[in-house]
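Summary for the lay section of the report: proteins are chains of building blocks that fold into shapes. Here we show the chain for 2-succinyl-5-enolpyruvyl-6-hydroxy-3-cyclohexene-1-carboxylate synthase and then a coded description of the shape we predicted for it.
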Amino acid sequence: MNHTENLTRYTANFVDELVAAGLTDVVISPGSRSTPMAMTMTEHPELSQWVIIDERSAAFFALGMAKQTKRPVAIICTSGTAAANYFPAIIEAYYSRVPLIVLTTDRPHELRDVGAPQAIGQLKLYGDYTKWFHEMALPEATEDMLAYARSKASRAVHIAREGNAGPVHLNFPFREPLIPDFSTKDLWGKRGKGSFLGKMEGRRRLDPQQLNNLCEKLSDSGKGLIVCGPQPDPNLADAIAHLARQWGVPILADPLSQLRAGKHAKDHIIEGYDAILRNETIRKQLKPDFIIRFGAMPVSKAYLFFMKEHRDVQQFVVENHTGYREPARNQTAFIDADGTALCRDLAAMVATPSADETWLDTWQQMNRIAKKHLLDQHEQEKLTEGEAIRGLMTVIRDRSTIYIGNSMAVRDLDTFFMSTTASLEVLANRGANGIDGMVSSGLGAAATGTPVTLVLGDLSFFHDMNGLLAAKHYRLNITILVINNNGGGIFSFLPQVNHQKHFEALFGTPLDIDFRQVITMYGGTYHQPTNLSDLQQVLKESYRYDGLSVVEVKTDRTENRQWHHDKWQAIENELLQTRG
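The coded shape description reads as follows.
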């Protein structure tokens, strides 16, 4: 068997097994050394291929797609620094628990460490940020080696999605010539009835004795809190809402919790908790007896202060699989159990916490006060950043996704996203909280056919403008709301703002870029509304438009900071007055 046949059969069996294990999409960045894998992926009849030239953009595109579908997505690149450009998205995938199959191609062993071009050290290139790494053997087409290729492909998909999902990395050394022969007989080999490595993973669940022990710890606790931070499971919302009603406790629901939107009951949800907890006196008055948290730590910094000031409060953190997410460093009992099943089991228990009759009422009253001020709309001469989010939420399409950027964007969503019966999923890159790759991530989510509104700041948009090529290339439907405060607006809320000598150069970092020209270059439509009604109208129109639509809202950082502080101060004053 000659080199080309070895290469062809080995690669084809590997690719076919990825499909057998459930892979449906692959994102390819063009290059020479990746030729065997890229061409074979493109040839496979059951795979959708997305060609994204820039590797950094490609990896974030795959990340967004995997977040939206909850399924692994593969990425393929050539050797050298191409693979290094995947790193930011791999870090994000690791921390946000997103399944990626990272397939890097490499020079064969004899061309490494000898000064050959485009040859870098790719073994375990991503360090501890992958769940599994394997250096693949050189291609052979014996029965044993084809079984080897299939076993590694199947294992990669299973590891990526099992337990806490995350990226896996396989490195392929390929010798030249690199062109496969697709006329090879029985090209795809012998696929079994299922994937090569079958695996069943059951739900983790507390046994009856463990449930009794937990309920006993809470039996004398009248002031409980359920907190739900960023998490992707839409089925958790109904279970948490039911448990909260059974126990008579409030729910502090992060905007990424998937609890603020949907058909489930929301009367126990406290959307305004970030504004409520900004005052130290109020935080002391609202000390709970216990906290049960689902998902990651909430976005709200006020909630973090609340936690640090009440270190003696019993805290339970529920993880579907083993994990450690407790940045406040409080004493914590971790519960490794499926969150939905745990809520239902606890709701069915006879022994429940003895709810304080005034506890829930207090939170609900405070929430009404916060919402009254947050939703108050005095006519403004120009749009504020909070109004941009409020305007979006009045017209957002049902059964769609909001992909929210970091820094100020996610914090404004936290503040101004009120409960709705609309079916909305909220995605974000909150693993490492970076501002890079956001355009590509949003487009990856949109590539699934789901209507997506990407909301981000001007710096985040600037960081990933080349990601817009995917929208043009594949005619993807997406609305991008760019909130442009000409720089790093979040720093206006941080202590750095008091150091004016260095502020603009190091933190404000104004871009002074006309984004309209960028949008035109990539074939999109552009609008710059100046008031709330115009914003709502152009957003509605964008949802009817086929392709890329960018809506830019220009704001002033200083005015925006004052506007936010005025809102928070008004809420604080009324809360303190009400509490006496």
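Put simply, here is one thing we learned. The CA atoms of residues 135 and 474 lie 33 Å apart.
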